[in-house]
Design a protein that fits this description.
EC number (chains A, B): 2.7.2.4
Family (chains A, B): Belongs to the aspartokinase family.
Helix content of chain A: 25-40%
Strand order of the largest sheet of chain A: 3-6-2-1-9-11-12-10
Number of domains of chain A: 2
InterPro entries (chains A, B): AceGlu_kinase-like_sf (IPR036393), ACT-like_dom_sf (IPR045865), ACT_Aspartokinase (IPR054352), ACT_dom (IPR002912), AKii-LysC-BS (IPR041740), Asp/Glu/Uridylate_kinase (IPR001048), Asp_kin_monofn (IPR005260), Asp_kinase (IPR001341)
Oligomer: homodimer
CATH superfamily of the largest domain in chain A: Acetylglutamate kinase-like
Low-confidence stretches of chain A: none
CATH topology of the largest domain in chain A: Carbamate kinase
CATH class of the largest domain in chain A: Alpha Beta
Strand content of chain A: 25-35%
Keywords (chains A, B): Amino-acid biosynthesis, ATP-binding, Kinase, Lysine biosynthesis, Nucleotide-binding, Transferase
Pfam families (chains A, B): AA_kinase, ACT, ACT_9
Number of strands of chain A: 18
Largest sheet of chain A: 8 strands, mixed
CATH architecture of the largest domain in chain A: 3-Layer(aba) Sandwich
Radius of gyration of chain A: 24 Å
Shape of chain A: globular
Chain lengths: ~400, ~400
Amino acid sequence: MALIVQKFGGTSVGNVERIQHVATQVAKSVSEGNQVVVAVSAMSGETNRLTALAQEMQSRPSKREMDVLLTTGEQVTIALLSMALQERGCPAISYTGWQVPITTDNVHSKARIEKIDGEKILAQVAQGKVVVVAGFQGVTTDGDITTLGRGGSDTTAVALAAALNADECQIYTDVDGVYTTDPRVVPEAKRLERVTYDEMLELASLGAKVLQIRSVEFASKYNVPLRVLSSMKEGGGTLITTEDNFKDNDMEKPLISGIAFSRDEAKLMILGVPDKPGVAYQILGPISDANIEIDMIIQNQGVDGNTDFTFTVSRNDMEPAFEILEGIATQLGAREVLSDDTIVKISMVGVGMKSHSGIASTMFKTLAENDINIQMIGTTEIKISVVIDEPSLELAVQSLHEAFELDK
Amino acid sequence: MALIVQKFGGTSVGNVERIQHVATQVAKSVSEGNQVVVAVSAMSGETNRLTALAQEMQSRPSKREMDVLLTTGEQVTIALLSMALQERGCPAISYTGWQVPITTDNVHSKARIEKIDGEKILAQVAQGKVVVVAGFQGVTTDGDITTLGRGGSDTTAVALAAALNADECQIYTDVDGVYTTDPRVVPEAKRLERVTYDEMLELASLGAKVLQIRSVEFASKYNVPLRVLSSMKEGGGTLITTEDNFKDNDMEKPLISGIAFSRDEAKLMILGVPDKPGVAYQILGPISDANIEIDMIIQNQGVDGNTDFTFTVSRNDMEPAFEILEGIATQLGAREVLSDDTIVKISMVGVGMKSHSGIASTMFKTLAENDINIQMIGTTEIKISVVIDEPSLELAVQSLHEAFELDK
């Protein structure tokens, strides 16, 4: 008998029919012999409705009171889902965050879980009940209600799975798993049976927005097997787990798991900077101070004692970064500042890279064969990213997907 | 500096504008030098909306889960009202029932308050904050969420006032106080400055539905001065307090405080019953067993060894009571069973009756002068009730109101 934590998000419980559908699904898991703990979000739309009410009350709504207000959303869902389960002959009981309790720090609106006491839940599970827990919420040691921030229900589910030592944490979403790339760009994209936590983190941060990064980190830290499934469509989804679990069938493990890409990229260049120690900090320090996140960085040393810096930021940050750079350029006596927001980033992700060479060269060769110019290159242990012109995005992803036989 | 508990019901917090209006009113009380604790209900309509959702989930919704569901209603209100107060520069903090905590027994949907711990509230009040408490809800010692039943926010307010040893408990409603009678029947009806708990209980149970009976009983038990006020209209409302508080100006205290009446009355008669010991029980026992509440009872002894029984019930209960009576009549060999649902009950209420005679005779004289026939009479220490024909209701109430100079 396996103990499973299942998480259903706002869309999955968005109306009466959806909640009934979830109840049927949970009841099925139980009838298959599993012990089930469910974490749910507020019904979709509810958070926006409550936020709108708050904004009519207070120009900058109190974060403490906002947490009191928003946590009613999941409280409604846990009660309704418990009722729907009982109606299906499946004993069920609801718990709010404070009832569990899920203890957090006191940072309202983005609290962090400090401790989950699994005792009450496990006692109910042992009695044959499904325990329906409110996601996204917790309580401080002083008894104040907190929220984990938007989308925090994933984190609740993973933290519950860790605390209860569950066999698996299943995240039900509107997609049926993690794909080799975006099927809207490559119709042949295939669902991955499994990926490692590290791969998932690279894929998620690069735009495959299936899971919250934080919950994947959490799952990785506590070694909780995580499965992404569709709440609408049957299927095994994608299992996210440690690399160890791949050892058995390493031969079958593909070199590359997936291709992520991001259109929200802009490039800034500061050219002809006198090449002295500390110049990188003088350029990038003020950018960071303005809370602009820098992604890739390249420095080209010139022959004339000057150097060129190129780095990428989100498109929204390009203008403010450009203004800061112009000030710096004057200060440092740099030649020119340029910006370009017609670039994209493509990343190939795979733990197989660790032990296999030649992936980068295959990637570059494939792009060259398609006349796609690489503007920047960045690598990590399990990822190679390139920056290219936006119009080449589709062709690049499609040809790489084919070259690495991800459709096989 | 007075400590006041103010209660606002669902209509008073029914939308954004109403909540803002309540916030302005509470802030005014604070600016007048009072310490204020507020108890609020769910926004009107919210309970019905949630109940409808529950009914779609489960044919007979679980009472435990129903309490989890419904208590979100007040939780939304406390957060919004706290925000609105803060926006007015009035420091405020919200507490749910479990946060106070308001400890109840574990009878879901109609729990009784066992204990209120006032410590947290008083600490916040001492810091100059308005504390906004969710009405209608509590928590068991096991940490389960409970509700006090519909309209239970009045009880929360009175219980809070008792626990905090508040100077006054103010119940804001859609009427501006307790009247000498229904102003729709007697336009000259006057608002009472004060009534005693006992009078209020008689007036409330007889149809002047301003306050929950239970909260008046509670206030009486703990000697909490209770004031009924309008949340829309300025004015001192009606103070409900002990008889002791009237002693000082007993001379001014009217004999009669008010005239209550009820149209929901039906009369049943069983005639020609052999007059033997135990016959009253034989007749009324089966009626009570059928959960039919009997109000007034009269027994007339006949000359022929037979007796007639007359009693009143709610109009809804007349048919079932009639059927039961017919069975009994056959059994006992009674002559006839009659019913009449065109009757009403009028009750004159006043603690002054205790020390003054002649009130009943003035009442009967007034009715006689207006050709109104009295069918039944019942009295308590502070009340005289008569049953008359429904068509005479308005004339009777108007003429009694005038005869006892209640409009003066």
